[in-house]
Write a structure and sequence with these properties.
Layout: H1 2-20, E1 52-58, H2 73-82, E2 84-86, E3 89-90, H3 98-107, H4 119-122, H5 130-137, E4 141-145, H6 172-175, H7 183-188, E5 189-191, H8 194-200, E6 207-211, H9 228-244, H10 247-250, E7 253-259, E8 272-275, E9 284-285, E10 289-290, H11 291-302, E11 329-338, E12 341-350, E13 354-361, E14 364-365, E15 371-372, E16 378-384, E17 391-397, E18 402-407
Parallel strand pairs: 1-6, 1-7, 2-9, 3-10, 4-5, 4-6
Antiparallel strand pairs: 2-8, 7-8, 11-12, 12-16, 13-14, 13-15, 13-17, 17-18
Helix pairs in contact: 3-11
Amino acid sequence: MKRSIVGILILAAVAFATWGVAGRLDSDAANPVLSTGPTPAASSSLPGGLKTVFVIVMENHNWASIKGSPDAPYINHTLLRVGAHAEQYYNPPSVHPSEPNYIWLEAGSNLGIGDDSDPGSNHQSTKKHLVTLLKQAGISWKAYAEGIGGASCPLTSTGNYAPKHVPFLYFDDVTGVNDPTSAYCIQHVRPYGELAGNLQHHTVPRYVFITPDLCHDMHTDCGPLNNQVRQGDTWLSQQLPRIFHSAAYQHGGVVFITWDEGEGGSDGPIGLIALSSHARRGYTGTEHYTHSSLLRTVQEILGVTPLLGDAAHAADLGALFSPAPILPRVKAFSAARRGSIIRFQWRLTRRGDALSFAVYAGKHRLNRTPIPFHTAPQYQYQTHWAGPGPFRLASILTSGREITVARG
């Protein structure tokens, strides 16, 4: 009996030594990951309906250099008003210079990299990184980089293009171990100019990583503006509308804009902006985040596991998004026509987040002003309409979103 008890205690001690400590480390023992925050709950706090992710990474500026700056009018007067932003978003502690932060956004760790060398020196054999999880799950992805030609895998710097800002190029399973003729790399790392056509023709992948060149990402003073922040802000004002007008963005898209690292060797805060119909409009977040939070958020939106490196210990960016709306419930929606007069009726059985209503014939909205919510459950609306249907009832929610709630 005593031997059995001793044996059980020894096995328990071995199990603790083997598994208990590893819970806070990356499963690749060669690349341990120090957690940048407390271990969060496993469940996601993100809303449903997000499908396509666009990530744009700018360079080397603290949030204090952006917020309120006269050199960033588009960010301050347009993006911050329509999106949500985090003011306590940092690069991982003491992770510098640029390249290790880009690697972190892909793998949840800098994988031991501490400089800005090209892939020839810093390439990694691990397959534990985001786009390989996407490939295994059958989820499309592409990186769009300014300043590359598209005929080869862009492994070396040229002009205002720097591979250190394209993290996928540091993984052997993407580049075929630094092969400039790698078909997989060439297929997935494309010239930025191709993005506009992909958006227009509805062929944009579900994960889009955008790398502006050194003039447009706030890295380098370039003419004619010779102002890093102004150059990046102007570029965003010219490029983002193409994304906003696309079906990929309008039907479940989200754009994340952040900076790679703090300026002057600091960790920030560097800030992050989230743009989506699901984002909390005009929201200023004070929650603490790092690149691990962005990586976790991307993984949760796209539904790929396991969470990579420190992303497993970080909070996601759910606080920047509105909670799932409580939809109104409508019964007996009908449309009765008499000549050119059409009369709509419906019964509201649950208000939910309804603020007002609108009626449509096809894509044509029939009421010029919203039909306001009232406490009586029965609704009627009458107007002139000689055209055809089909007819539908939409609810404008308190968040400003409009959702179809009945057809008839």
